[in-house]
């Protein structure tokens, strides 16, 4: 875990050219280290990457757009660190363990008929 976080922090960009994904840790982990991600707009990836805010969403299977995204992200990262900071903030805001566990508790309460989870 430590070695991975050091690598993610040292990287300027993470490229995930997967053709199918759900909600991949290979995107969430570098974002949590402040490393923007470039990936195809497919599966659950759009739930993680906000186009040109936390990384770059290339059109599905368009390798030229993926290459444009890599270049764009490297250029942005060279100018300032906002892209990486936004990536980290997104993960903290939407995927931190307390946020996710609260969502699960609310869902469980709704499914079991308890408004506040007390049933």
Please characterize this protein's 3D structure.
- This protein has 119 residues and is mainly alpha-helical.
- Helix content is 54%, strand content 9%.
- It is built from five helices and three strands.
- A three-stranded parallel beta sheet has the order 1-2-3, with helices on both faces.
- Helix 2 links the parallel strand 1 and strand 2.
- The model has no long low-confidence stretch (mean pLDDT 93).
Features:
single chain, 119 residues, mainly alpha, 5 helices, 3 strands, 54% helix, 9% strand, globular
The chain-level mean pLDDT equals 93
Strand percentage, roughly? 5-15%
Side by side, the strands of the main sheet go 1-2-3
What is Rg?
16 Å
Q: Write down the overall geometry.
A: globular
Give me the secondary-structure topology:
Blueprint: H1 2-10, E1 14-16, H2 25-32, E2 37-40, E3 55-58, H3 63-79, H4 82-95, H5 97-112
Parallel strand pairs: 1-2, 2-3
Helix pairs in contact: 2-4
Compact summary:
This protein is mainly alpha-helical and 119 residues long.
